[in-house]
Amino acid sequence: MNVISSAVSLTVADPAxxxxxxxxxLGFRETLVGEDFIALGRDDAAVDLVLxxxxxxxxxxxxxxxLADTVVVLTVTGLAAEYERLRxxxxxITVPLRREPWGELLTQLTDPNGVTIRLVxxxxxxxG
Length: 128
Prior knowledge:
Number of domains: 1
Largest sheet: 4 strands, mixed
CATH class: Alpha Beta
Number of helices: 2
Distance between the termini: 44 Å
CATH topology: 2,3-Dihydroxybiphenyl 1,2-Dioxygenase, domain 1
Strand order of the largest sheet: 1-4-3-2
Helix content: 10-25%
Order of helices and strands: EHEEEEHEEE
Oligomer: single chain
């Protein structure tokens, strides 16, 4: 098997709101727009995202036992500067920039539909 691309499909109440958040704050662009979905991509190694409108009439994934929360994790460079940019733009930051002892700098955002996006930069671990 040779994987040539990857995407994560997120079912949300308002795909347009999530798309605006991701294109405004995180550099995604809309690559395909349909009646009840929006596909987003970037020109770097980020995973593509497909935002599908939640349809309570259609069977499929939804809230229920056994389902876990989804977190979209993007590993980036220059996170400290990105954090300041996001703060300045008024993005909803739910976890302020912090450094973990194992060598991870991270912050977390939440889009208008409640989608959690974690930005991570790998740095030197704290020693001593």
